[in-house]
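4.2 Preliminary Data

To establish feasibility before requesting continued support, the project team ran the inverse folding procedure on a target of 384 residues. The structure was first converted into the token representation described in Section 3, and no sequence information of any kind was made available to the design step. The complete token record follows.
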């Protein structure tokens, strides 16, 4: 798979832009603020229906325009697939797949498999647990688009359950009875356990697939000079909200669901007292370690970069094992790496079906990745 054409109308800084890509490495060169990342963001939006930079769609639409349009031609082995998205803040986005409108925007998920690494991804190792949960869920959807529905169902039930607990909490605080009826909580527990078990089972299976790749990828891009063998092993483990750090949760939906229901029942008193759901996949953690120490709070800046890179390279490797090689994107990455890590990363990326790289300084990109060049300036993109 590779991205052959990216066409933008009123997206971010572009009134109109069309870029034709080819397999192998391509480098987008331009000054900071020229619009390189806007192009990458548009491709990422086609792949995930989300931005890696902002939480809402409003900033994606060029100032003065009412909507933005992103089109992509995606080449597979024996066919080409056209995808179009109309982004309209305040309204439901609309999508077309192969020139035909789809009933739900999320029906286009899976058309483009893309793994993006950007400076914002340092939050994967330095940020709150929610960043790591989102990483897992986004990758789940890339592998199996049906998880977009599972994720949406879980979020919907969680929102309803939290609203019920919150109303009971407020009624208790004010001494009134209105809004304090918890008679339907058992029903919401059942819904949360069912959808939560399916989401959790997917995450656990994914972590099992990612684990071996994380250690290999970290070793490939980083060497710990303080160790005799030059390697500090990178590991990851999934910690459910009802397990201690040594727990080994079941991985089958049928096994997880009753445990989750029991855990919700055990936490009910605390939940009513606090007015929020305390048990479920939304409270879980992905624990990242280098050697015997957690990455968060202990790792150096370089180690954090290497670990974040390892997570994204592992995601890329897992997707490749499914039989469809994804597009790999490196957004302004090489400027943050020392020369040794640059070369190691370039060696790791050799042979990829398609790699898109952005940079402000051409010399930052190792020679192995200097394929086709595109100059980005003043709202225009042209082949060098």
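Position-by-position output of the design step:
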């Amino acid at each position: 798979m590779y991205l052959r054409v990216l066409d933008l109308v009123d997206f971010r800084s572009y009134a109109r832009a069309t870029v034709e890509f080819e397999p192998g490495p391509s480098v987008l060169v331009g000054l900071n603020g020229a619009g390189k990342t806007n192009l990458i963001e548009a491709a990422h939006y086609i792949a995930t229906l989300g931005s890696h930079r902002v939480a809402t769609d409003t900033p994606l639409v060029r100032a003065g325009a009412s909507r933005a349009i992103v089109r992509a031609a995606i080449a597979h082995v024996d066919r080409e697939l056209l995808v179009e998205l109309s982004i309209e803040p305040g309204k439901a986005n609309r999508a077309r797949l192969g020139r035909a409108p789809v009933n739900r925007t999320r029906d286009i998920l899976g058309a483009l498999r893309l793994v993006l690494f950007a400076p914002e991804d340092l939050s994967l190792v330095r940020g709150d647990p929610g960043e790591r949960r989102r990483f897992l869920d986004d990758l789940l959807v890339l592998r199996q688009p049906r998880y977009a529905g599972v994720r949406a169902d879980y979020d919907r039930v969680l929102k309803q359950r939290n609203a019920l607990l919150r109303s009971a909490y407020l009624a208790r605080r004010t001494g009134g009875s209105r809004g304090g009826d918890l008679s339907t909580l058992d029903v919401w527990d059942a819904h949360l356990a069912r959808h939560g078990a399916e989401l959790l089972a997917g995450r656990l299976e994914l972590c099992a697939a990612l684990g071996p790749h994380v250690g290999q990828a970290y070793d490939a891009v980083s060497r710990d000079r303080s160790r005799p063998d030059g390697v500090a092993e990178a590991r990851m483990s999934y910690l459910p909200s009802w397990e201690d750090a040594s727990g080994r949760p079941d991985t089958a939906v049928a096994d997880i669901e009753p445990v989750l229901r029991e855990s919700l029942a055990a936490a009910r008193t605390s939940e009513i007292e606090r007015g929020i759901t305390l048990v479920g996949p939304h409270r879980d953690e992905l624990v990242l370690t280098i050697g015997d120490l957690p990455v968060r709070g202990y790792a150096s800046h370089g180690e954090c970069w290497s670990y974040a890179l390892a997570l994204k390279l592992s995601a890329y490797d897992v997707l490749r094992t499914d039989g469809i090689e994804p597009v790999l994107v490196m957004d302004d990455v090489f400027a943050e790496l020392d020369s040794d890590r640059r070369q190691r990363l370039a060696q790791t990326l050799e042979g990829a079906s398609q790699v898109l790289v952005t940079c402000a300084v051409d010399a930052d990109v190792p020679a192995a990745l200097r394929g086709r060049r595109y100059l980005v300036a003043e709202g225009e993109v042209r082949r060098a």
